[in-house]
Amino acid sequence: MDSTATRTLPFVYKYKNHEGQDCESRLDITFPFDQENLEECITQLMALNQMDPMMRYLDENINLERELQKFVDTEQQNFLDDHAEKLLKQTANEELDIEAIVRDTERLYKEELLQFADRVGSSDEDIFRPRASIAWCTLRPWRTYSSESVHMPSRRWIAQINQLDITTTSEDINNLLAQQYTTQNYVRKRYESELEAMVGHQKNEYRNWITSQVSQMFQVSPVTTPLGNRSSMFVSQQPSMEESFTIHLGSQLKHMHNIRILSANVTELCSPLHAEESLNGLNMALGLYSSSLCGVVVLCPSIQAQANKNIIKNANKSTEFHFEQIDVQMEKIEKQIKNLTTEDSSGSSTSNSSAEGSATPSPTKKSVTRLKTGDFFITKHSNLSQTHVIFHLISDEPINSPSEINSRHPVILGLRNILKTASRHDITTLTIPALLRHEMSEDMTVQWCIRRAELVFKCAKGFMIESASWGGAELSTLQLLLPDDISESLFTTLAGMVPSVFHVANPKILVDTSN
Amino acid sequence: MGTRERERECRLCAVTFFAKLHPGDVCGSNGLPLTPNSIAILGRAQKLKELQDEHLCQYLDVIRGKHERTIVVSEYLGLSLEDYAMRHPPLTIAQILRIFYQVACGINVLSRHHLVAHNLEPKHILLSSDGQRVKLFNYGLHHMTKGGAYVPFPIGNIRYMAPERLLGLNGNVKSDVWSLALVMVELILQIELWPKLKLSNVVRKILAFGKSNGALEKIAREHQCHERYVQMDQRLRQLLESCLSVLPKRRPLPGELLEHPIFEEVLLDLKKQKMEPLSPETDHLPLLLRCPLSQIYHLWQLAGGDVQAELKKEGLIRSEAPILGLPQIVRLSGASVCPGRSQAQLMDDRVVPLRLKALLQRLSGLPAAVYFPLLHSPRFPAHFARELQELPLVIREKDIEYQFQRVRLFTRLLQGYPHTAEQLQREAAVDVPPLLRGPIWAALLEVVPNGSYAKIDKFTSTSTDRQIEVDIPRCHQYDELLSSPDGHRKLRRLLKAWVTAHPQYVYWQGLDSLTAPFLYLNFNNEELAFLSLFKFIPKYLQWFFLKDNSAVIKEYLSKFSQLTAFHEPLLAQHLASISFIPELFAIPWFLTMFSHVFPLHKILHLWDKLMLGDSSYPLFIGIAILRQLRSTLLTSGFNECILLFSDLPDIVMDGCVLESQKMYEATPKSITHRQHALRLQPPQALDIGVADVELKHLQQEQCPRISAKDVQFLLDNSPAELALVDLRSVVEFGRVHVPHSINIPFATVQLGEQRLEALQVPQLEAQLRGKIVVCVSNIHQHSVEFSHFLVACGVQRTCILHKGFNVLHSIEPNILISN
């Protein structure tokens, strides 16, 4: 569809100047004309032709405006009519692809207007979603179900190991090993399938239970979904060190945020929800479908999109009732990654169209696309203690050689994308690794840590200021996570940097002014 | 409930949609992040609020929700043509023509404003319940979304869409003529267009019109009503056929349509109706409904009306659990893999009425005099709630009866302006209703619009353009209006116009912040915003925008230091001792009248009071801010102070306004004397002369000077507030002195020890406390040194008599006595 055609016409304005001489002013005007530009055109007409500035005071501009407006109105109408005529003729002569127009129009109407959209029923998740308020009470009856079955050292294996003596050749050992692996594999497969069956069974049971509860609730009273929670209020697992600040960001209009700096192992933040009896579990469960979610950023290498092993283990300790089991989520993500075409072919695909782009993978793809540093994938959880959402951010920094990065480094930009996603999807509590490392290593000198932390703090601050204009949810709490094996003195140093980088809110002092 | 009553209550309604998200992470041409589309829509929609016509539903508000949701509030009337036709089938030809004519009127008004509707359909044509009045509804969608560029969904009902629009051509008013004709054809032929056809086939049908002539006949045949087509009035058929010409050139313009002879009767009818006296129904109309809709909507909001809650109640804002919409993978480029979009995100064109019942009931008890206040009849006092004026401003601004009364009163006053200027000033001193703040400020600044803004060149490029371009995207961008592209364009025009209109001045950074409040308040009236700024700057910032403004600023800041010493001697002493001088923090305060350091909502309250004071008022605001931070400042060193002021902490504006007002009123005018201030009348004999006090004096003297005239005034009117300290020798004092003055001969005192007791004057502290302490001497230097001593002792309100004791001799009638 050619809607970029333009037409340029000269506008000539004749007038008498203050000495009564006939003058003329001329300007080329391009159609389609934007009404906003009218005044600018008048200025040009007066300035380009050296019209005496005095003429403005003789109200010549008013007359000029009237003339120009009349000219523009007529010509604009002519232009639009002619342009339409051209296209309509082309249509009549079948020079345009009518079917494409029909297809595009239909797609647009069906995809964007509720009136024409195909009505779809609620998805599974949608059904589960409703009543988080009753969802939490389901946590208890099932929590003991599924944690035992994983580790079963084979007794036979131990016995055979004990029988080993000098007479055994390496061949024997190899045989033995092969045998052992087969049995082990067999046992594992059996347990896995049993586990899977059990999980499926539990999910089914849960679903039935929910359905019965919901229909009961509908009979009794209208349903209200909880509005939000402040899960940060109930921190159950005390991290070894932590310090909190309240800060104001913004130059004129100030937004308040909370900053907490703490040292802990990242897996502690993602420990199984049911491991401890505490309010926190209930609180996290209540917040699952609210609009104040909790998220954690976990770094992972790019070699293979794979979540942190300990986290997977934690997530697998109990049945995931609301989402898919983490292994299934990972499988799907891996599939998506394979489908991802290289960036050039998908171009500037939007968040929606990239899904369909993946349906037709380009055959010219060289190798399996891999996520690169700064990309991230997301898993959702209802059975972890302090997070609903885990952002797995790809970072390939080698463990033993701390490098220097700047604010344009992909990991930092990935962090910005995470904050953006968080704002768009109502994640209001976010934990980020403040050194972009989960463990300390010997090469991480105090100087390096200070530099790295300062960079992360400053970038986080910048992104938070920026986020005010994104129009999403405001980040209420940012947690800066330091490795759990950090020294106390270094922690104190880094915590001391927070108030200097972020502007800490002044305490409000109430003074009795009566005397 | 009768239909009429329901109609009364449904005067307002809301529709909602989502703006398009920017794909990934893109930046604009200036390197800054793109403005969200919802903000751009908000900016463009402001213009629509100005449209007022009897055939158009007025736009009232555009609200931006979370995640790009946009809510449009507008007028509503009776019921839609769709419903009306269903309830009264079939409509007579006369009725149809009446509707035809009035809708065409609406389109014509739009095209005069260079707008097109492009979504004309029976749903968007509203009729009063008697079917007499017709209004267009939701006609601004095409304009506010920039022809649909800002929203993901297509605009317009496909059935009524002209063929050229399917080919992607927008903006031609004749497309609306086509739609209008089709809507009328439906009514006349009593059919529904292609009721069972699939969407794609409708598109094919419309495009197929291009190949044949006689769209009307074709439609009639397809819907098995060729008979009705044949029986149709000849003229009407020709009119419709011309409107349904495939080539837009052959269709009439709305203006031409209105002049068609077929409408002669309708025209006569409408004229007759207008001539008729008000029907009894309108007499029974609640008084509130005779007020402008914008005021009704404002009150509705005050009365607890919440558009978002109403939409939620109707299920239009379905909250989808955010966790379900999370993407699975996000690449560095911003591309992401998302689960499918939920249907809650789709465009749902339902209309939600906003009920006025509660508001009507709430205000029904008020006397008619409140609805239509009389300004010049003392028999009917314009105030009915004096006691409310004692309450804090925040409460007054939320009280609906009070606001209603204020809004009605100011509406009257503004209508009478400039004749009512004095009364307006008096009322504004009480408070300013937020709804009318823009025009009220303009009136306080004595603005009289005269069309001069149109004559100023706002486009020719100048040397300051680059700086303006840099400043605009950083000026109060948290505000939706000011951050919209329309807001940027308007601010640029205002700034350029100001620069052009003041060849003697230059653009200093900060002018943008100074302009922002005026633009924010008068977004649709640039001229008023410009003229307000035009008057504001000389009043409070005379000469500040000179290319070399150092002398002006130095004088201003020295005066600020003096006044700080006058009201807060200990604080001034402390700041001076750590050399934390005003140059380090106060320049942006005064150059922008605090508009650079505070968010808009605080500036508005601050300036409400500022507008009533003279050019010295800002100085007191500055002191009030220091006073609020007093305890922190007194315990801070230089570095802490710098850090504290680099990002000013949250200031309680209410307290700041009250404090500054108190200080402003308690300070004699001559104390604030500045050479560069705007002067309305020439100084008199006993005043401080224009150039009497030089900058170096100001910088040397810690205390301000007071004029003999003010001393005389205080002596005459409130001698209890004055403490004159006469520093001359005992002999001179004995010869002649001011009654009740305290004699402390300068030659005898030791100023080394900074304690009042050291002077050994009995009860000196009690005599000075709470008074304006004037140091008088024959030798100026003595007064200066003694005043420094008093400040060091923490004595408040110390000043020096300008020109010394001898000037008191010249006061007539004589005030001096001798022992």
UniProtKB/TrEMBL annotation, chain A:
A cellular component term from Gene Ontology for this protein is: cytoplasm
Disordered, as annotated region = 340-367
- A Pfam match: Fy-3
Q: Ranges of Low complexity compositional bias? A: 342-360
Q: What is this protein called?
A: GM16386
Q: Which organism is it from?
A: Drosophila sechellia
Q: What is the lineage of its organism?
A: Eukaryota, Metazoa, Ecdysozoa, Arthropoda, Hexapoda
Automatic annotation (TrEMBL), chain B:
Keyword annotations of the record: GTPase activation
Q: Name one GO molecular function term.
A: ATP binding
Domain named Rab-GAP TBC: which ranges? 431-614
Matching CDD domains: RHOD_Kc
Extract one GO BP annotation from the record. Answer: Golgi organization
> From the record, what ranges are coiled-coil?
none
- Give all residue intervals belonging to the Protein kinase domain: 1-263
Alphabetical list of Pfam families matching this protein? Pkinase (PF00069), RabGAP-TBC (PF00566), Rhodanese (PF00581)
Residue span, Rhodanese domain:
718-817
InterPro entries according to UniProt: Kinase-like_dom_sf, Prot_kinase_dom, Rab-GAP-TBC_dom, Rab-GAP_TBC_sf, Rhodanese-like_dom, Rhodanese-like_dom_sf
Q: Which Gene3D superfamilies match?
A: putative rabgap domain of human tbc1 domain family member 14 like domains, Rhodanese-like domain, Transferase(Phosphotransferase) domain 1, Ypt/Rab-GAP domain of gyp1p, domain 3
Q: What is this protein called?
A: GM12660
Q: Which organism is it from?
A: Drosophila sechellia
